[in-house]
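TODO from last week: model CDP-archaeol synthase.
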Amino acid sequence: MGWPSSVFWAFWYILPAYFANASPVLVGGGRPIDGGRVWRDGRRLLGDGKTRRGFIGGVLIGTLVGVVQYFITPGFYGSLETAVKLAFLLSFGALVGDLVGSFIKRRANLPRGYPAVGLDQLGFLISALAFAYPVKTLSSGQIIFLLVVSPFIHWGANYFAYKMGWKSVPW
Ligand SMILES: CC(C)=CCC/C(C)=C/CC/C(C)=C/CC/C(C)=C/COC[C@@H](COP(=O)(O)O)OC/C=C(\C)CC/C=C(\C)CC/C=C(\C)CCC=C(C)C
Ligand SMILES: Nc1ccn([C@@H]2O[C@H](COP(=O)(O)OP(=O)(O)OP(=O)(O)O)[C@@H](O)[C@H]2O)c(=O)n1
Ligand SMILES: [Mg+2]
């Protein structure tokens, strides 16, 4: 594979995780996953920014993106079943990583929405890659590429969402 094609397939592979991570901003809200509960340090388990609707909506949208991707490039996935499994694991993994990130942020006494550089941009990605690994993975070069470029895309996407009035902070 030449590098333009490696780069393309790396983005194509990770797209469900990107969608899953971005969707809660638009579809989230309502009851927080932690139900308002506090940890033994007296602070919220996850906080009000992690809602059940955002989580479920993100997993559904990310998985749906995988179905669409299958019909565009069936050869990349081999079967619809593989595409759905992969997209589900990438989406679920991304959102679990997002929850772990919030758990860590609350333990560090960072309020909801406060930036944690590294964690915010890479937590969801590393978790998505790990969950999806058993079904299909990328070359190590492609993984390193995603780790390097995703923070910039994440910042760009958040800035865009802020400018659109979808988020109250540009991170
Ligand atoms: C259909 C429904 C209801 C929702 C679709 C959601 C949607 C618009 C998905 C876009 C998917 C996508 C390709 C997103 C960009 C990739 C990415 C890593 C997103 C991470 O999500 C960040 C998200 C939440 O941040 P959090 O981790 O703190 O929770 O931010 C929300 C962003 C959006 C809802 C807007 C999505 C942004 C765009 C469509 C614009 C994308 C702009 C860029 C990629 C700029 C590129 C910049 C550089 C520097 C290259
Ligand atoms: N499982 C999720 C994840 C996100 N969101 C929505 O998406 C917004 C942005 O997500 P994120 O930046 O991950 O949350 P923060 O509010 O920054 O909270 P934290 O400090 O815990 O990361 C949240 O405020 C919330 O409205 C949601 O409803 N459910
Ligand atoms: Mg945030």
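Done. Residues 3-163 form one domain.
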